[in-house]
Amino acid sequence: MNPTFHSVPALKELFAADFKIGAAVNPTTIRTQKALLAYHFNSLTAENEMKFVSVHPKEQTYTFEDADRLVNFAREHGMAMRGHTLVWHNQTSDWLFQDRQGAAVSKEVLFGRLREHIHTIVGRYKNEIYAWDVVNEVIADEGEALLRTSKWTEIAGPEFIAKAFEYAHEADPQALLFYNDYNESNPLKRDKIYTLVHSLLEQGVPIHGIGLQAHWNLYDPSLDEIKAAIEKYASLGLQLQLTELDISMFRFDDRRTDLTAPEPAMLEQQAERYEAVFRLLLEYRDDISGVTFWGAADDYTWLDNFPVRGRKNWPFLFDAQHQPKAAYHRVAALAAEQRA
Ligand code: HXH
C-alpha cells in the first residue's frame, strides 16, 4: 500500500528549525483537506477571503464570515495565520475609487477610505494574524516604469504604498508587514522591487519583509535567478517569505491540454526541482521565515484552468488523494540529511 500523508514525517516538523510551512486555504479546502492541513502545515493564508472585494463589497458593508471561519480553523489547530492582502489592483471593489456619481474620488478621500478599511480588518485580527501582505503586485512587469498603472496610481500617485504600511502599522504595531509580488526572481522586476522597498526603508516606512510569491514551473526561473533574488532582497536586512509557492508542470506559454494525469517523467522532474529549491531555501534559512504553498494538494489548485482553460495542473507535494508524491519524499530526505 502507498504511504498516506500521516504515515510520513510532517513537513512542519521537518522544517521546524528553519521556517514555517504554510498553505493557502478557502472554506472548501478547510473541509476537504482538513486532516492533511492539520498534520503537515503550521501556517495558513486565506486564498481570497481577506481580499478587499471579499471583506468590504460596499462602503457600509463588511463581510467577515468566510475570513472568520479560516481564522477559527487556524486557531483550533494551533496554526499561525498570514493576512492577504490589503492593497491590490485586482479583486478590489469599484466603489472604493468612486463617488456617488461614479466620478473618481480625490486622493484625500481615497486615503481616508483606505485607512478606515485597514484599521477595521487589521484591527479585527490583531491577535490572530502575525504578518500581513500589505501591498500586492504594484511593480510593472516590463519596461522602464517602476509602478504599474492602476486606479491607485491614477488617483494617488505612488504615495498610497507608504500610506498603506503606515495605516497597517498604526492598526497593529506588532504585525510583520510585507511587500508581496510575483515574477520576483526575474532580474528586471527583482531590481525594481528592490528599488521600491529600498526607497520605502529610506523614508522610514514600517516594512519588515518581502514576499516572493514563487509561482514557478519545472523550467523557470533558474536556480541562479532565485538565488540572486534572495540575496538581493536579503541585503535590505528584511525577512523573506515564499508566500504563494507552487511548481507548475507547464512552461508559462505552454498551451497543451491533452493530459489527464501527470506523466511519470514530469513527476520525477518536479521532485528534482522541489529538492533543488528546498536545498536553496535551507541555505538561506537565516533570511527566510516562512514557506507557504498556494494550496496544499493536487485536488485543488488555482492553476487548474489558469492560464489555459480545460487544463489541470499538479503543482504540490501531495497528490489529488493527499498521498505524498515523489517531490514530498525528496524534500523530506533532504530535511533529514540536513538534520543528520
Ligand atoms: C497571485 N497573483 C495573487 O497574489 C493571489 O492573490 C491569487 O490568489 C493568485 C495568484 C499571481 C498572478 C499575477 C499576475 C497574473 C497572473 C497571476 O497575470 C496574468 C494574467 C493573465 C495571464 C497571465 C498573467
Word description of this protein:
The structure is a single chain. Helix 6 runs parallel beside helix 8 (159-171), helix 9 (187-202) runs parallel beside helix 10 and helix 11 (264-283) packs parallel to helix 12. Helix 10 (223-234) links the parallel strand 7 and strand 8 (239-248). The chain is globular. It has helices spanning 11-14, 29-32, 34-40, 52-55, 65-76, 107-124, 151-156, 159-171, 187-202, 223-234, 264-283, 326-339, and strands at residues 20-25, 43-46, 80-87, 129-136, 176-181, 209-212, 215-217, 239-248, 288-293. By secondary structure, it is α/β, with parallel strands linked by helices. An 8-stranded parallel beta barrel has the order 1-2-3-4-5-6-8-9, surrounded by 5 helices. Ligand HXH is lined by residues 47, 136, 182, 213, 215, 244, 302, 307. The site of ligand HXH has 8 residues, from loops.
Topology:
Layout: H1 11-14, E1 20-25, H2 29-32, H3 34-40, E2 43-46, H4 52-55, H5 65-76, E3 80-87, H6 107-124, E4 129-136, H7 151-156, H8 159-171, E5 176-181, H9 187-202, E6 209-212, E7 215-217, H10 223-234, E8 239-248, H11 264-283, E9 288-293, H12 326-339
Parallel strand pairs: 1-2, 1-9, 2-3, 3-4, 4-5, 5-6, 6-8, 7-8, 8-9
Helix pairs in contact: 6-8, 9-10, 11-12
Bound molecules: ligand HXH.
The site of ligand HXH has 8 residues, from loops.
